[in-house]
Automatic annotation (TrEMBL):
Domain Plastocyanin-like: 68-181, 213-303, 349-474
Top-level taxon: Bacteria
Keyword Nucleotidyltransferase: no
Protein's organism: Lysinibacillus xylanilyticus
Keywords: Metal-binding, Oxidoreductase
Lineage of the species this protein comes from: Bacteria, Bacillati, Bacillota, Bacilli, Bacillales
Protein name, as recorded: Multicopper oxidase domain-containing protein
Length: 475
């Protein structure tokens, strides 16, 4: 096709006015440069594994998802007011198979507006559950779609404008697993809750009555807590056998970034990014996930020598998840050398940049291309099925700036470059969210399979609620 006819959309950010500032004087935002540590997990509670949601009907695949209020015993003997899907806190895991047609019935049983957003799912705009798809209290909506993307770990959460952060904080988040023939043939650990575990990391602040008081905890620059919940479990531990174990990590926090590593310094294999398998497993000693990013990793507990006091820890060595390793040797699952065949060096590399996104600001003064979200404004247009290169630039501010995790609805994209350099190996897979550091430029190749209006935004949920969001119309 003729690329010269494609017009540039977005901001011309050729003048990097902050470039000349003394780097030493650039300090990050206080709450993000000096992040409060998480309390160490004491490991007294086995981590809760979300139930797999049952299909309602044998002949057609129908799932029902209800957003509800409830009370949850997070602390022994204390009832905490929480939100959940089909339960009082968080949600179930919904398993989808590539190629099948699925109906999902969504019901709002809250006493406030909400939406059901399918993060990472490639569906048309009106099924995506963005802020334009409000369900009022008592309302429901059923939508049907064909699963048309490869195996991946996705998730769902609310997206009402200005209220997304609070509703997620209160507990609305669930998992979507997509499986396909290829994923089932690989021999990877896939026994749910036995050697294949989802781990949703969320930090919270509890008040002295052990309640989630969002308005008291809220930070306009991103709410950060001192208490870690994994799958809603306080002080979690995970019991595993001496075998290869697949951990599907989801950063479900409002704003906190995590750098996961084993306290022994042992390495692990990353096998999947947000939207599918990497071409080959990547051996890592640590991995950073910003809000909404996922990674599937495989830890071989049969190869780790020091299993006493073994734990998954954060960058600052706070203990996130102690492991209890049994003497039992496990299944003979494997990690094949070849997992996918995504090409990154092909024609996309030569496409011109046709969308420019400039992320800027802090607190409630956050913008994209100098503008705040306006539901009446379409910021970009793109043709269905046509790949365009988006350039995302994180413009520093007087304080230096902070990482913004940039997310596009309705599409999985490829990362072409970070500051004109090849992305790290573990980002050379399908992504729907990408961290962008201050003064960094990230180029991505984006193609939408479906039509409709989609959001793109910062996934620090308070930034999103404060208007760091735009809309693209795919025609
Ligand atoms: Cu942001």
């Amino acid at each position: 096709m003729d690329h010269s006819s494609m017009k540039m959309e977005g901001m011309d950010h050729s003048s990097k006015d902050m470039k000349d500032m003394d780097q030493d004087k650039m300090k990050g935002h206080e709450s993000h440069s000096n992040v409060v540590s998480l309390n160490n997990s004491t490991g007294v509670n086995e981590v809760n594994i979300p139930a797999e949601l049952k299909r309602n009907n044998k002949d057609e695949v129908v799932y029902t998802v209800r957003a509800q209020k409830g009370k949850t015993e997070i602390f022994d003997g204390v009832q905490t007011n929480t939100y959940g899907y089909n339960g009082s806190f968080l949600g179930p895991m919904i398993r989808l198979e590539k190629g099948e047609t699925v109906k999902i019935r969504t019901i709002n049983e809250l006493d406030e507006d909400t939406t059901f957003h399918w993060h990472g799912l490639e569906v048309s705009g009106e099924k995506d559950g963005g802020p334009q798809s409000i369900l009022k209290p008592g309302e429901e909506n059923t939508f049907e779609f064909k699963v048309n993307q490869e195996a991946a770990t996705l998730w769902f959460h609310p997206h009402p404008h200005g209220k997304a952060a609070e509703q997620v904080y209160n507990g609305l988040a669930g998992l979507v697993y997509i499986e396909d023939d290829h994923s089932k043939s690989l021999g990877l650990p896939n026994d749910y809750g036995k050697n294949d575990f989802p781990l949703i990391f969320q930090d919270r602040i509890f008040d002295d009555k052990k309640q989630l008081n969002y308005s008291a905890a809220m930070n306009t620059d991103g709410t950060i807590g001192d208490t870690l919940l994994i799958n809603g479990t306080l002080n979690p531990k995970l019991t595993v056998n001496k075998e290869k174990v697949r951990l599907r990590l989801l950063n479900g926090s409002n704003a906190r970034n995590y750098t996961f590593k084993l306290n022994t310094g042992d390495s692990f294999l990353q096998i999947a990014t947000d939207g599918g398998f990497l071409n080959e497993p990547v051996s890592l000693k640590e991995i950073t996930l910003t809000p909404s990013e996922r990674a599937e990793i495989v830890v071989d507990f049969s190869k780790i020598k020091e299993v006493n006091d073994l734990a998954l820890i954060n960058e600052d060595r706070s203990v996130l998840l102690p492991f209890v390793v049994t003497d039992q040797s496990g299944e003979t699952s494997m990690v094949p050398k070849k997992l996918n065949d995504l090409s990154l060096e092909d024609k996309e590399m030569d496409l011109p940049v046709t969308k420019k996104v400039e992320l800027f600001g802090m607190m409630d003064m956050v913008t994209i291309n100098g503008k705040k979200f306006d539901p009446e404004r379409i910021d970009f247009t793109q043709k269905q099925g046509v790949t365009e290169v988006w350039e995302i630039y994180n413009k520093p501010d007087m304080m230096g700036g902070m990482i913004h995790p940039f997310h596009i609805h309705g599409a999985q994209f490829k990362v072409l470059s970070r500051d004109e350099k090849k992305p790290p190996e573990n980002e050379q897979g399908w992504k729907d969210s990408i961290s962008v550091k201050p003064d960094e430029t990230v180029k991505i190749a984006v193609q939408f399979k479906h039509k409709g209006i989609y959001m793109f935004h910062c996934h620090i949920l308070e930034h999103e609620d404060n208007g760091m969001m735009g809309q693209i119309k795919v025609e």
